[in-house]
Amino acid sequence: MSNYHIKHLEEYYQIYRKSIREPENFWEEVAEEHFLWRKKWDKVLSWDFAKPEIKWFEGAKLNITENCIDRHLVTRGEKTAILFEPNNPDEPAQHITYQQLFERVNKMANVLKSQGIKKGDRVCIYVPMIPELAIAILACARIGAIHSVVFAGFSATALLTRINDSDCKMVITSDGSYRGAKTIDLKGIVDEALESCPGIEKVLVVKRTGGNITMKEGRDMWLQPLLDEASKQCPAEIMDAEDPLFILYTSGSTGQPKGMVHTTAGYMVYTAYSFKNAFQYRENDVYWCTADIGWITGHSYIIYGPLANGATTVLFEGVPSYPDFGRFWEIIDKHKVNQFYTAPTAIRALAKQGSEMVEKFDLSSIKVLGSVGEPINEEAWHWYNDNVGKKKSPIIDTWWQTETGAIMITPIPFVTPTKPTYATLPFIGVQPAIVNEAGEELKGNQVEGRLCIKFPWPSMARTIWRNHKRYKETYFSTYKNMYFTGDGALRDEVGYYRITGRVDDVIIVSGHNLGTAPIEDAINEHPAVAESAIVGFPHDIKGTALYAFVTLKDAGESRIHENLRKEINQLITERIGPIAKLDKIQFTAGLPKTRSGKIMRRILRKIAEKDTSNLGDISTLLNPECVKEIMDEAL
Ligand code: 7RM
């Protein structure tokens, strides 16, 4: 029996049991057989959730790019590693072979070194979905610099907060980006952000759109001339297993975004292993994940997981709706995609177009369909299954988080029978627990509560960048000796898990994790606004959309509300980005509050969801009288 390739349900249970009973032996075998180590580990695992401190493969030495690139050169040098599909369908696709990727990553790594980047330095990567994004990431990993990718749809304020939080020395960006019919002045956003980023010494600029940009003397440089000069040999920096590989920011329910820190060896082993099995990837398959590399899904399942397996991974620059809603299906047909991984929000938007768009194309290459980012509702699940998978390709509903680094609960295709809206069974090595509010684990089946994980897995984030206290408080303090996910879940009569949504104040809009606090902060910046509270409400396409309850400083504000709504959304676009725009804004005289002054979002959520039959006990409120008024005027 090979632990690396699960073929039927019996085998899943066998391997799963082994991974739980003897986790160290299990992961040691996987690590030994399938990766390239410069030195093996002294100890497979040491952990203490109370501190918390987690170490996997301590003492081992490696470089992840040798595992993702170098070791494939002999057998897969001419195989396509990255298949780039541009935004504009008339622009030819690019097949970047493993050999070419090797040379381009090394050149980029040499450029980074020549511009003063050393092991441990942080490099901010703010690049659209073009090959240079993947190459920049791998180049950082090659020399041991810590990459911090910021989604290229984020605003200048969001960018500068992230640059400053992790003290980045360099930004890699592009002149502009293409998104559907739009061209975005990315460099202009960087320039604005950098007015408030004293730590940035150098900016490397990829030419993509040829737009008119300004280059700041001594700081900004075009990348191409530097690459032309660079050697295509760059020895890999030998890293410790627990050296940081990257920082990736995720919203929290309060305050600043959290810079989740992922380390090298455990992340590599688990993302590679989960990629192989969760997608049942086979040599010569063409795999496509539509996520942006600015999110964890792109890090783990466009770059590291697929490349560690020597796979062909599609990198798509555009959007599902351009030039029309057939774009995804056209790409699947054109490149004969075998595994297709996308988000429920995209599925809902595409389903809205009907099935004609899908039927124009030959999708018979598809073997496995994936879903990630939020709960996939029944309707979307069936549409995906019937129209895209033609009822023959299993859908893997994969539950995981930025913090978990990789897939945690998922069916294994052709192995685990699927069930709509259920992420089904824990992946190998994952020990979930459902706990009640008192922190007691609910054993057995048919239970519902909060989802926790009881035992470390190799790809878990090790800390929050320079804020270990917050890491401990957020994930390890709610329940003793368990990692708390922030999600609610139930376990059905056969032991399948269904994720019911966030139990904190993070709202997931179109698959993007948005914290309430930063959006409220942006609204509150408006001079007319006194206070605001954001909640989610169900939305056909986005899954959840944002509803804002806003109190004005001057209740008799003379400007018409429509203008104010526009100005508030404008502020949000500037501060956070268009993804955080509000769908509904209700102006109200007051917000329901506890006596200690906390806004009771629970009540607002019920009102937004139009579910006011049972608001719970509102007598403890500071101002119960405002609830009726809000209900009467709800949008
Ligand atoms: C990978 C990713 C994490 C949050 C998570 C959940 C929600 C993700 C699913 C899901 C139900 C799923 N990372 N979530 N996948 N909910 N079913 N299959 O999305 O850090 O951006 O978000 O997303 O609430 O805690 S993330």
Automatic annotation (TrEMBL):
<dbReference type="GO" id="GO:0005524">
    <property type="term" value="F:ATP binding"/>
</dbReference>
<dbReference type="InterPro" id="IPR042099">
    <property type="entry name" value="ANL_N_sf"/>
</dbReference>
<dbReference type="GO" id="GO:0019427">
    <property type="term" value="P:acetyl-CoA biosynthetic process from acetate"/>
</dbReference>
<keyword id="KW-0436">Ligase</keyword>
<dbReference type="GO" id="GO:0016208">
    <property type="term" value="F:AMP binding"/>
</dbReference>
<dbReference type="InterPro" id="IPR011904">
    <property type="entry name" value="Ac_CoA_lig"/>
</dbReference>
<dbReference type="InterPro" id="IPR032387">
    <property type="entry name" value="ACAS_N"/>
</dbReference>
<feature type="domain" description="AMP-dependent synthetase/ligase">
    <location>
        <begin position="73"/>
        <end position="462"/>
    </location>
</feature>
<dbReference type="InterPro" id="IPR020845">
    <property type="entry name" value="AMP-binding_CS"/>
</dbReference>
<keyword id="KW-0547">Nucleotide-binding</keyword>
<comment type="similarity">
    <text>Belongs to the ATP-dependent AMP-binding enzyme family.</text>
</comment>
<protein>
    <recommendedName>
        <fullName>Acetate--CoA ligase</fullName>
        <ecNumber>6.2.1.1</ecNumber>
    </recommendedName>
</protein>
<dbReference type="Pfam" id="PF13193">
    <property type="entry name" value="AMP-binding_C"/>
</dbReference>
<dbReference type="InterPro" id="IPR045851">
    <property type="entry name" value="AMP-bd_C_sf"/>
</dbReference>
<keyword id="KW-0067">ATP-binding</keyword>
<dbReference type="InterPro" id="IPR000873">
    <property type="entry name" value="AMP-dep_synth/lig_dom"/>
</dbReference>
<dbReference type="Pfam" id="PF00501">
    <property type="entry name" value="AMP-binding"/>
</dbReference>
<dbReference type="Pfam" id="PF16177">
    <property type="entry name" value="ACAS_N"/>
</dbReference>
<dbReference type="GO" id="GO:0003987">
    <property type="term" value="F:acetate-CoA ligase activity"/>
</dbReference>
<keyword id="KW-0007">Acetylation</keyword>
<dbReference type="InterPro" id="IPR025110">
    <property type="entry name" value="AMP-bd_C"/>
</dbReference>
<feature type="domain" description="AMP-binding enzyme C-terminal">
    <location>
        <begin position="519"/>
        <end position="598"/>
    </location>
</feature>
<feature type="domain" description="Acetyl-coenzyme A synthetase N-terminal">
    <location>
        <begin position="12"/>
        <end position="68"/>
    </location>
</feature>
